[in-house]
Write a structure and sequence with these properties.
The complex is a heterodimer of chains A (351) and B (242). Chain A has 351 residues and is of the alpha/beta class. Chain A has helices spanning 9-19, 35-46, 57-69, 80-95, 122-126, 144-161, 171-175, 219-237, 257-272, 290-297, 313-320, 340-350; strands at residues 2-8, 24-27, 50-53, 74-78, 100-106, 137-139, 164-170, 177-183, 209-210, 241-244, 251-254, 277-282, 284-286, 302-307, 327-331. The termini of chain A are far apart. Chain B is α/β, with parallel strands linked by helices and 242 residues long. Chain B has one domain (24-240): Thiamin diphosphate (ThDP)-binding fold, Pyr/PP domains (Rossmann fold). Chain B has a seven-stranded mixed sheet with strand order 2-1-3-4-6-5-7, sandwiched between helices. In chain B, helix 7 links the parallel strand 5 and strand 6. In chain B, helix 3 packs across helix 4. Classes of the chains: A alpha/beta (351), B alpha/beta (242). The A-B interface holds A 23-24, 26, 50, 52, 54-56, 58-60, 62-72, 74, 88-89, 92, 96, 199-204, 207-213, 215 and B 41-45, 48, 54-55, 57, 60-68, 71, 74-83, 86-87, 103-104, 106-107.
């Protein structure tokens, strides 16, 4: 039975994590994601899970590291400046091949920036963020219903590939309310017995170690090649994107998350005026829908990338299509949000 | 003839990478003997620090992970909270615990996490080449205090047990030394109590072990032991602080 609820995005994400079997959450207060830890502080004890308000973002991600290596589905959340602090821990999760879900409800930067919505952590999320040769899966929901789907998917992917997964939202998605359907019956628990690699005491088996230090000659290169093989598999299997009017458009708008919602409205308005405009909405930002964009590039005349940043995802769009078609850009930064009219005006300029 | 002493089961049959005269081997062995004596090897999860003891998992014959620099108490918290049935201990050096990981140790202690921390204080960074540690003695020469530690620019030796002793979350904090056989026996008693406390659910326990680093104190193994006994203990008095 599905129940319909009205909650803000941060709370929806927290509930979806619990439905996905998350039983450990550690976090530190930062706006605009504070509803998430507050919700967890109430819900986790109800489901027999652990909530910790940590002394720092750094501690929170390292507590996730500990809970995860013991076999528990674990999550932390924060917003941009806090996510910068977590990068060390994310790199260690990747290096130790530990699952973990990290939520970034993006706000304006650089520095302390402001608390308004932004998409300016795209580079950080998709290009590494922390040190070393690694990737994390990055999923970008565009509605509260999709927050539910992608949060649950995040835990499954994190376990399947033993990798950190980031859910990349923004202040609008975190704060806004819309009706959401939650399935009662889907509540899952992480089955630690299925995880053959966890540390739970060496009863009846040889001791295990979980570490990322590889000093022996060539051992780190061998390990990094193994990681790359995993990343290739993820690129093959886990690309997700939505395409609107992919077959008969002259101009394709490319946008994710909040800006994709605004762009969708702009596209529909232009369509109603007979303009041949479509939309590509990457749902997985890493892996990026390269093949899909390449295919579309053969049919369209140009692209318009819309972001709440000064231009970050646009680089991946250009790389994906080998710069074969013009790629235009419209972005607002520092808390600015593009409006439908602004996007329509940009499209008309290109036309 | 009967064999009266053998390697603890909790210790792997390997030689360590530690320098001649280093105290880590002694502390490792004490921990392993205690884990054997308490019969908790199959429940134990150890956490190695960043520092000379980073590859302790090559010497310990139980489950071990390795934390980012200074983050041992946070990792221990994560493990212990989801698995109270496991025995979780962290092994940290002075740079790890008292410099880069100060926030983590203070707050794990203040929350009263039911974990055990073994803190090896040898007054210097070993792995990176003998730089000043937060616990380096005044006037002590290191790679980054070539003229000796001067409180005006480098601050004072950080006293971890004294600092933690004011926190109500701390159940047990004792400072011991391993500069003589009698002291090693006392150190073992303290470490055992710190593990027993966790088994009994008493809460946060820390044992600070004064240890010698002959290589970066710049003395022979024998003289470095004397240095601990005569110089370090004056700055870091032994005893139970909480």
């Amino acid at each position: 039975m599905a129940k319909k609820v009205l909650m803000c995005g941060n709370e929806v994400l927290a509930e979806a994590a619990i439905m996905a079997g998350c039983r450990f959450y550690a976090g530190y207060p930062i706006t605009p994601q504070n509803e998430l830890p507050a919700y967890m502080s109430r819900r986790m004890p109800e489901v027999g899970g652990v909530f910790i308000q940590s002394e720092s973002e750094i501690s929170a991600i390292n507590m996730v590291f500990g809970a995860s290596l013991r076999g528990t589905r674990a999550m932390t959340s924060s917003s941009s400046p806090g996510i910068s602090l977590k990068q060390e821990g994310i790199s260690y999760l990747a290096g130790c091949e530990l699952p973990g879900v990290i939520v970034n409800v993006m706000r304006g930067g650089p520095g302390l920036g402001n608390i308004a919505p932004s998409q300016s952590d795209y580079f950080q999320a998709t290009k590494g963020g922390g040190h070393g040769d690694y990737h994390q899966i990055v999923l970008a929901p565009a509605s509260l219903q999709e927050i539910v789907e992608l949060t649950m998917l995040s835990f499954d992917l994190a376990d399947k590939y033993r990798t950190p997964v980031m859910i990349l939202g923004d202040g609008i998605l975190g704060q806004m309310m819309e009706p959401v359907e939650l399935e009662d019956s889907v509540e899952r628990t992480a089955d630690s017995e299925k995880k053959s690699w966890i540390l739970d005491g060496c009863k009846g088996r040889e001791p295990r170690k979980i570490r990322s230090l590889l000093l022996e000659d060539g051992s780190l290169e061998t390990f990094n090649r193994k990681l790359q093989k995993k990343y290739t598999e993820i690129k093959d299997k886990e690309v997700r994107c939505e395409i609107l009017y992919g077959d008969d458009s002259d101009i394709m708008v490319v946008a994710y998350g909040t800006t994709s919602r605004i762009s969708r409205n702009a596209v529909e308005k232009l369509r109603s005026k007979g303009k041949k405009i479509g939309l590509v909405r990457p749902i997985s930002l890493w892996p990026f829908p390269e093949k899909e964009l390449r295919r579309i590039a053969e049919k369209v005349k140009s692209f318009l990338v819309v972001e709440m940043s000064c231009g970050q995802m646009i680089e991946d769009v250009r790389l994906s299509i080998d710069c074969k078609k013009p790629v235009h850009f419209y972005g607002r930064s520092g808390g600015g949000v593009p409006t439908e009219d602004e996007i329509i005006k940009e499209v008309e300029k290109i036309v | 003839m009967s064999k009266i002493l053998s390697k603890p089961k909790s210790m792997k049959d390997s030689s360590t990478h530690y320098c001649a005269g280093c105290g880590h081997g002694i502390v490792h062995r004490l921990i392993c003997e205690i884990i054997d004596e308490l019969g908790i090897r199959e429940e134990t999860i150890g956490i190695a620090p960043v520092g000379c003891a980073v590859i302790a998992y090559d010497y310990w014959n139980f489950d071990v992970t390795e934390a980012a620099h200074g983050r041992v108490p946070a990792v221990a918290t994560g493990i212990k909270r989801v698995a109270p049935e496991n025995i979780v201990f962290g092994y940290q050096g002075d740079g790890d615990l008292a410099a880069i990981g100060t926030a983590e140790i203070v707050h794990a202690a203040n929350r009263g996490e039911n974990i055990t921390i073994i803190f090896v204080n040898n007054a210097v960074y070993g792995m990176t080449g003998g730089q000043m540690a937060p616990t380096t003695m005044l006037k002590q020469k290191t790679a980054t205090t070539p003229l000796g530690r001067d409180q005006k620019t480098h601050g004072f030796p950080l006293k971890v047990c004294e600092l933690l002793s004011v926190l109500p979350g701390v159940s047990y904090a004792e400072r011991v030394s391993i500069h003589s056989p009698q002291n090693i026996i006392k150190a073992k008693k303290a470490i055992k109590r710190a593990f027993q406390n966790q088994i009994d659910g008493v809460g946060f326990s820390i044992v600070e072990v004064l240890s010698q680093c002959p290589t970066y104190i710049g003395l022979s193994p024998e003289d470095s032991v004397k240095w601990v006994a005569e110089t370090m203990i004056k700055e870091y008095p032994l005893g139970v602080f909480r």
